[in-house]
Amino acid sequence: MAEVRIAVVDDHPVFRLGLVALLRSLPDFDVVAEAASHAEALEVVDDAVDVVLMDLHLGAGSGIEATRDLVRRHPGLKVLVVTMQEDDDSVAAAMRAGAHGYLLKSAAPDALERAVRAVTHGEMILGPGVAERALAAVLSGRGGGRVAFPELTDREREVLDLLARGHDNPTIARRLVLSPKTVRNHVSNVLAKIGAADRTDAVIRARDAGLGQD
């Protein structure tokens, strides 16, 4: 069997080092790159990498955005999210960004090995706890009506909606009873999370997703 070439992206050095050591102890796995941030991931991951193990929290950066950017640059790349977050919105955002799998950091080593091998072969994989939540959402009818941009907080989505309606920062601040600085911070977070180049791009994406409409 050909070696699976892996990159590990996680901003917690102790966990990252432990994960790298575990992966290198497994047959046919070769860790060829490590990164602690979105920017570092873009630097070290190239077409020689088969699978990226991605944390969702990368300090000031977002694993969702890192996943989206890496998949755009390397269409054949498989991303397996390995995170502490098990909420439905995080799972949905990761899959929308192009991830092939979602695993919790509490997963057993053999579950991690199976997940890496599965995504390597193009399978979609969800860890046991994540899969149970996803199935429950489908059975309860919650799977078909997800909000736009689940990677955003409710407040960030409100700000994006007002941007899509053509409001400037001072107007948004008055409407939401926030300080101008807080609004600027929210706008910056929104642009980063949805991968928008600027406000105009964010408005276009928001309107395409149905925001900014009565």
TrEMBL record:
InterPro entries: CheY-like_superfamily (IPR011006), NreC/VraR/RcsB-like_REC (IPR058245), Sig_transdc_resp-reg_C-effctor (IPR016032), Sig_transdc_resp-reg_receiver (IPR001789), Tscrpt_reg_LuxR_C (IPR000792), WalR-like (IPR039420). CDD domains: LuxR_C_like, REC_NarL-like. The keyword DNA-binding applies. The modification 4-aspartylphosphate is found at D55. It holds the Pfam family GerE. GO terms for molecular function: DNA binding. Residues 145-210 form the HTH luxR-type domain. The keyword Cytoplasm does not apply. Residues 5-120 form the Response regulatory domain. PANTHER family: TWO-COMPONENT RESPONSE REGULATOR. This is DNA-binding response regulator. It comes from the Bacteria. Keywords: DNA-binding, Phosphoprotein.
